[in-house]
Design brief:
CATH architecture of one domain: Sandwich
Helix content: 40-55%
Number of strands: 9
Structural class: alpha+beta
Length: 191
């Protein structure tokens, strides 16, 4: 009888556990179905809202207000570009022998300083805005078209800068420029 009682208690525990698990599984299935339904509704709502926003933006682009704001933004950008170009354009005093701009390592075309010149100078500028951080700017003067070193130029590190280097020899020269930044150079006869 003791054995039968233990078997009966074990069977009742098994039935109770099975019932609890079945109820829990049923609740979990219901929760998952509810969550899935809610997620589907949320996705449909978001898609509808996104479509509405796209329609509003499309309609807004056709308005005079948008067109005037766009023109104003382009004008500001053009003004900013003009300022950068003005910063990169040195002031000329004398006869320009060479003028150029670029970035990176570059050799200029040869230019000749006449024997009658009482010296010459190089106006230079550099601007590292497009590089996004401070950079190096340097050039050296070479005699003729070969790499016959003649004179040092500036060796600058910064976001931007400008200056003038003076030289007093005559003949044919070229400049070797080295910079990560945008730069301009002008060789001008007369110091």
């Amino acid at each position: 009888m003791k054995k039968t009682l233990i078997t009966l208690i074990a069977a009742l525990c098994f039935v109770a556990a099975s019932t609890t698990m079945a109820v829990a599984a049923s609740k979990t299935t219901t929760d998952v179905k509810t969550a899935t339904s809610k997620t589907t509704t949320d996705v449909k709502t978001l898609a509808s809202a996104e479509s509405h926003v796209v329609t509003l933006l499309h309609n807004y682009k056709a308005t005079a207000l948008w067109k005037s704001q766009f023109k104003a933004a382009v004008a500001v950008q053009n003004t900013d570009l003009a300022r950068v170009n003005a910063d990169l354009s040195p002031t000329v005093k004398g006869t320009v022998l060479f003028s150029g701009s670029g970035s990176g390592i570059e050799s200029t075309r040869p230019f000749t300083v006449p024997a009658s010149a009482k010296g010459w100078h190089v106006n230079w500028t550099y601007n590292c805005a497009s590089f996004g951080m401070a950079g190096n700017f340097d050039f050296d003067v070479y005699q003729g078209t070969q790499l016959d070193f003649n004179d040092n130029g500036p060796n600058q590190v910064g976001m931007k800068g400008s200056g003038t280097e003076h030289y007093y020899d005559t003949g044919t020269f070229h400049l070797e420029t080295n910079s990560e930044c945008a730069w301009t150079l002008q060789a001008v006869a007369g110091s």
